[in-house]
Design brief:
Blueprint: H1 4-7, H2 14-23, H3 36-45, H4 58-67, H5 80-89, H6 102-111, H7 114-117, H8 126-147
Helix pairs in contact: 2-3, 3-4, 4-5, 5-6, 6-8
């Protein structure tokens, strides 16, 4: 049985679509002309709707990843700003960003340098590699300092 919403998908009545999206945000997949306003309504209701938006505007991308950073997996071409928001929250998610810029790589490493050790960044830039090495050396130095504290003081 075809729902009233699906039957009317050929009409260009945005108010009708908004009403339907507020009830079920996944109906965005059936809308041919996914206007920015319709995208925002859908992802505001449920971040998972981003998966069904063909070319999400930056604002829709941001709403989705702020609700759940893992939504980056479903955005084909996330903007640089969206990428930064994601890696600053969860650096390991850089693994789902194709060709992250140097700035995005640096932000992720700044948050957690161990993502390099886990090979989450493919084709790491020279600058990002240098930042990793610096962070790694700082961590080693910190570990050595901690290990040098006499036992009676470290209690």
């Amino acid at each position: 049985m075809v729902s009233e919403f699906t039957r009317k998908m050929t009409f260009k009545d945005e108010a009708f679509y908004i009403k339907g999206l507020k009830k079920n945000s996944f109906l965005i997949k059936d809308i041919e002309d996914q206007t920015p306003e319709l995208q925002l309504v859908a992802v505001s209701q449920n971040a998972w709707a981003i998966e069904y938006i063909k070319n999400p505007v930056e604002e829709a991308q941001l709403i989705a990843v702020k609700q759940d950073p893992q939504m980056i997996k479903y955005i084909r071409n996330p903007t640089k700003e969206v990428q930064l928001v994601v890696v600053q929250e969860r650096p390991f998610l850089i693994n789902f960003i194709k060709n992250p810029s140097v700035k995005v790589q640096m932000a992720a490493i700044e948050k957690d340098y161990k993502i390099v050790e886990k090979n989450y960044i493919k084709n790491i830039s020279r600058e990002a590699q240098q930042l990793y090495e610096k962070k790694y050396a700082q961590d080693l130095k910190k570990q050595k300092t901690i290990n040098m504290i006499p036992e009676e003081i470290s209690l």
